Amino acid sequence: KLTPFRYFKHAFDILLGKYDDPDDEGQISHFQALSTALSSTVGIGNIAGVAVAISLGGPGALFWMWITAFFGTALKYAECTLALEYRETDSLGNTAGGPMYTIENGLGPKWRWLAATFACFAIICSFFTGNAIQSNTLTQQLYAQILSITGPDNALMITNSFTLLGSESNISIMHVIIGVACASIVGSVILGGIKRIGNVTSYLVPIMAAVYVMCALFIILTNYERVGESFNTIFTMAFNPPSIKDPAIGIAAGAFISFLNTMMMGVKRGLFSSESGQGSAAIAHSTAKTPYAVREGVVALLEPFIDTVVICTMTALVIIIFNGDNTLFTYGNLVEGSSAVMIEGQKLEGAGLTSAAFAEYISFSGPFLAIAVVLFALSTMISWSYYGLKAWTYLFGEGKTSELVFKIIFCVFIVIGAAASLGPVIDFSDAAIFAMAVVNIFCLYFLMKVVRAELISYTSRLKSGEIKKFSH
Predict the structure, then answer these.
(1) pTM of the prediction?
(2) In terms of Cα–Cα distance, which of 226, 265, 206, 207 is closest to 64?
(3) What are the backbone angles phi and psi of residue 346, rounded to the nearest 5°?
(4) Tens-place pLDDT, residues 163-195
């Protein structure tokens, strides 16, 4: 019954603390839980992911990102409601939740093997999706900025070829320095636990989002006459993208393949950006202070809207406005073997394409976008360190030694990601994301009745006045 839309206003009331009781069970506020979850989703996917989707699938890919977000709200709501319903609390009031606990406590102990399987994939994902990819993008962005100042002949900037993770990587001393610096920053935060993570991300996420959104909004408003045309292009090319011109397959088959490609690009990048159905956000939301599982599920459904409908749309509009009438590059006509486009003799891919679009309208945007990428990446790594840690302790138990081992390995992968080639990192990451989603959605399917019963109970108590706003 379109729960995400019916409870949209209620979600903001909860987020503003109107229902917060400091004595409720849990560790962090609704806002901190949302910030922690958003900090893992609002990131490289919004800058590089949108550019990849548009360059590969055309502007119409954004439409399918919206569709993914529409259904993603329901997935986020369900998985986070169940995470609160089946979370565990120890004698000190520390909570632990997420798909691992939902599977074991919801489906029963005989399914613990499936919970352990999910935990394994979550750990792998934390090392690659939430860590190495972020570190790699951050490092490349900073390296490019420093290179423009020092030049390529500086001893710190000269690259040498090494084999890392089975692929050839071009590494300089500066890559290693940036990686170690990032590992030090992230390490100092994650050693403080979820409360420190919640405190850091509750400040970091609004700041980084504001900087990025303000730059994008400035470009969109100063080119307002192109906005209507851009939306028309998005809707038109969602169903009628440029057809693949290959005599061997024919015009009709080429058009159909192009349509499928556009839809697939939008769905894939939409899922990567919002993490809907993956189950990772449920780990953060399970620590929220609330006695009502549905309440946190309602807060969680805001994530796909903020991440995809707002921030990804702004990125897409900037790139579409920048390209005009295909004057700079032709959608889908890419450099062979990559998602890069050629603009004025320069090969641009992912964040590079977004940077070029921003720089066209804001001459000094390079440093600002570099700062945004750094903040996006750091916050994502910080949040994913917590997701991976909870999966780690589920498998190996809690304890200072066990947790320290995970945190050290996590920080090592930051340095590896800074130096490695992006190809194998993405391959590991995509496989782990897919595996997490399959296990998580399997669990959601069999616990739908619980989600529905919780919603009916919460709604009736809300309407009867039993659940009231808390007087601060």
Answers:
(1) 0.82
(2) 265
(3) -110, 135
(4) 766 666 677 888 889 999 989 888 888 876 556
